[in-house]
Each structure stands twice: as structure tokens, then as C-alpha cells.
TrEMBL record:
Lineage: Bacteria, Pseudomonadati, Pseudomonadota, Alphaproteobacteria, Hyphomicrobiales
PROSITE patterns membership: ABC_TRANSPORTER_1, ABC_TRANSPORTER_2, MOP
Biological source species: Flavimaribacter sediminis
Keywords: ATP-binding, Cell inner membrane, Cell membrane, Membrane, Molybdenum, Nucleotide-binding, Translocase, Transport
PANTHER family: ABC TRANSPORTER I FAMILY MEMBER 10, MOLYBDENUM IMPORT ATP-BINDING PROTEIN MODC 2
UniProt name for this protein: Molybdenum ABC transporter ATP-binding protein
Domain annotation Mop: ranges: 297-367
Domain of life, per lineage: Bacteria
Alphabetical list of InterPro entries matching this protein: AAA+_ATPase, ABC_transporter-like_ATP-bd, ABC_transporter-like_CS, Mo/tungstate-bd_C_term_dom, ModC_ABC_ATP-bd, Molybdenum_import_ModC, Mop_domain, P-loop_NTPase
Pfam families in alphabetical order: ABC_tran, TOBE
Family, per entry: Belongs to the ABC transporter superfamily.
Length: 370
């Protein structure tokens, strides 16, 4: 465990015929996604952290030890905010009273973690909903209130169990920007269970990959995405997500420049993004092609010098490789997926300098709160 890994969870035991045996550390800030197929144990881990299930092991949230060999803190003494698939609001209370339930109806100023009534209302844009009852809210609005209520209980950790899975596509798209703002604005760690990779790509800082009750891998999102020994990098929709900073806007062509470690990207249609703002870029492995020399005439705007750091044959037709941007080894890593025929024709090999070409249209920036 390094200095920033301040949450420690180790659990082992059986629930009927399901065996769970996991141990991982996670940062005490930002959003950690627990990702894996149905039945791999994601919800069970959250329930053990909340003290709702009891398996042997340990659970420590920074300096709060909730479980070890000798102690087990009961659920009601664990400062946990829990958001379920379906928002379970009190039907007879208004949004305001639902939010204030844990504070006995009193509006409290912001705590040191940034969570206060006004801050939560503002963050989740709940002001105009205050007097309504839960039955007069959309599914997405109900979930926003559920998140607000969980935050206002002043938790040490926010546990979210597939909070978007009961919502339709439109409600999901509405609530995702709130979740993006939330975990970056507040000093509360979030554990977020999902089996939807697009949610991981948009929200997660840290990732715990699970399968059949075991941890397959655990680490920063970008590190796991670009690890070709893991299944993430090998699947058809494989991608990396990069944190980028807006450095310039070309009004004549409507193009914004995004800087990442080791390179920069030009992307159209981003006039509202202020210079200096941070964005998250998703770059699909299949959207990256390679050239040995910098192409003199091409319609592709983003042609970045890079080096092939590693490669792996997916089958006898395709190769996936990790590219490190720039000329030194400090650049961000991209994935590229090309045919084995192209690999042979270009005589590619690990360590070879190349030019990575990425179509602007394939890049969809997501604003990160400052
Ligand atoms: N209280 C329980 N008693 C017995 N078995 C249980 C209990 N709770 C969960 N299980 C079993 O443990 C396994 C893991 O369940 P869990 O809900 O943690 O998985 P999950 O990864 O969250 O799945 P999903 O994505 O479908 O929600 C499943 O096989 C489930 O049937």
C-alpha cells in the first residue's frame, strides 16, 4: 500500500455456495469503481463495508477501523452513505425533508469535507425540486435526491450500487454529469459498483476488477486500461481515458486544443470549454492507426509521435499494442488495435517509434470540474 491508499478491505468467506476472497487498497479520495460480471461479488463487498454482511477480514476507512481480527463495528455505527439501484426516499416527505432527515430537519453549514446543505443542493441542482414529493420526481431526479440525502448523513465513504441501472438512457445521461461533478468536488471517497464500462470510463479514478469472488486487478483506471495482460485491453471496445487540459481555441475552424502528457489533440465543436479547464478524453483502441513517417497529406488532424511500448496478438488476425506518447517515456499511454497484416507490412515491433493517428470525430471530451 502506498501513502495515498488509505482504504483497506480484505474479506473472505462463503455465502451459501458463493466464495468471496478479496483484498485491496484504494485511495481515500475520488471514485473507485468495482467492476465485474453479474454475481462476481460487487454488492456483497459493499454490504460488508456497510456492515450489512459479515465475513472474516478487515475494513479500514482511513483512521476508522470498522473490522479487524478482534472488532466488528455494527452498521449503525459506520458512517456510510448508501445509494441503491432504486432511490428509496420517504414517500410522505418532501425533497427538502428527505434531504434533512439525517440532520433532524436542521440545515447545517458545510463540514470540512465540503458537504453542507447549500453545497449539496447546488451540486445536485435540487433547488427547484425542494417542495415536491418523491412521486412527482423523474427517476433521475429521485436518484439525485437519494445521493444528496446520503451525502448529508456526513459519511466517511459513499457506497453506490449500480445507481443508474434502473434509469432509462435519457435519465442516465442527465445524472452522469452530476456524478462527474460530485466525486471531484467533495472530499469523500466513493465506491461505485457497475457492470457498465462506459460509466467506469466517465467516472472512475481507480478500478477494482472482480471475477468470481476474486480481485483480478486493482489500480488507477488508466494503468489497468492499458495493461494488455488484463481482459479490459483485449475486448473489442477497449479504450483509454486521459485527463487533458484545454490549452487553446481556434475560432476560425472551431477546434479546441487539449494537452495531455506527451502530446496534444485538436477536437472540433468545443467553444464553451475555457482555457485551463480539465477534460477527460476517451480514445478507443480501434480509433488509433499507425504510420512510420509523419503523413504529409492527410485529413487526420491528430498525428502524434509515439513509441510502441508493448504488443500482444489477440488472435491470428489482430494485434493490440500500448503506445507511449512523445519522445521520452513519460507520455500518456494509448491502446491501438490493428491487423496482423498491417503489423507485418510496417515491420512493427516493440520499441519502434511511430506516428499515432486519431480521428478527431472519435474523441469526445468530458468536462472535469476544476
Ligand atoms: N445473503 C446471501 N446468501 C447467499 N448467497 C448470497 C447472498 N448474497 C449474495 N449471494 C450470492 O453471492 C454471489 C455474489 O452476489 P453479488 O450480489 O455480490 O454479486 P454482484 O457482482 O453484485 O452481481 P450483480 O452485478 O448481478 O448485482 C451470487 O452468487 C449471489 O447469489
Amino acid at each position: 500500500m502506498n501513502g495515498t491508499d488509505t482504504i483497506h478491505v480484505a474479506l473472505s468467506g462463503s455465502l451459501d455456495d458463493f466464495d468471496l476472497d478479496v483484498a485491496f487498497d484504494a485511495p481515500g479520495h475520488g471514485l473507485t469503481a468495482l467492476f465485474g460480471p453479474s454475481g462476481c461479488g460487487k454488492t456483497t463487498i459493499l454490504r460488508c463495508i456497510a456492515g450489512l454482511n459479515r465475513l472474516a477480514g478487515a475494513c479500514r476507512i482511513e483512521e476508522d477501523i470498522w473490522q479487524d481480527e478482534t472488532r466488528f463495528t455494527p452498521t449503525h455505527k459506520r458512517a456510510v452513505g448508501y445509494v441503491f439501484q432504486e432511490a428509496s426516499l420517504f414517500p410522505h416527505l418532501s425533497v427538502r425533508d428527505n434531504l434533512l432527515y439525517s440532520s433532524g430537519g436542521r440545515v447545517k453549514p458545510a463540514a470540512s469535507n465540503g458537504v453542507g446543505f447549500e453545497e449539496v443542493v447546488d451540486l445536485l441542482d435540487l433547488d427547484r425540486l425542494m417542495q415536491r414529493g418523491p412521486q412527482r420526481l423523474s427517476g433521475g431526479e429521485r436518484q439525485r435526491v437519494a445521493v444528496g440525502r446520503a451525502l448529508l448523513s456526513q459519511p466517511r465513504i459513499l457506497l453506490m450500487d449500480e445507481p443508474l441501472s434502473a434509469l432509462d438512457r435519457q435519465s442516465r445521461d442527465e445524472i452522469l454529469p452530476f456524478l462527474e461533478r460530485l466525486h471531484r468536488s467533495l472530499a469523500i471517497p466513493v465506491f461505485y459498483v457497475t457492470h457498465d464500462m462506459s460509466e467506469v470510463e466517465r467516472l472512475a479514478d481507480h478500478l477494482i476488477l472482480l471475477d468470481a469472488g476474486r480481485v483480478v486487478a486493482s489500480g488507477p483506471l488508466g494503468v489497468l486500461q492499458s495493461d494488455t495482460t488484463l481482459p479490459l485491453a483485449l475486448q473489442r471496445g477497449a479504450a483509454v481515458t486521459l485527463d487533458a487540459v484545454v490549452s487553446d481555441y481556434d475560432a476560425a475552424y472551431g477546434l479546441t486544443r487539449f494537452d495531455v502528457r506527451g502530446g496534444s489533440f485538436l477536437i472540433p465543436g468545443s467553444a464553451d470549454m475555457p482555457t485551463g479547464s480539465r477534460q477527460r478524453l476517451r480514445i478507443g483502441a480501434s480509433d488509433v492507426s499507425l504510420a512510420l513517417e509523419k503523413p504529409a497529406s492527410t485529413s487526420i488532424l491528430n498525428v502524434l509521435p509515439a513509441t510502441i511500448s508493448s504488443s500482444r496478438a489477440l488472435d491470428d488476425r489482430e494485434i493490440v499494442m500500448v503506445l507511449t506518447l512523445g519522445h521520452d517515456s513519460n507520455g500518456e499511454q494509448l491502446l491501438a488495435r490493428i491487423t496482423r497484416r498491417s503489423w507485418d507490412l510496417l515491420e512493427l515491433q516493440d520499441g519502434r517509434p511511430v506516428f499515432a493517428q486519431i480521428k478527431s470525430a472519435a474523441l469526445a471530451p468530458r468536462r472535469l470540474p476544476q
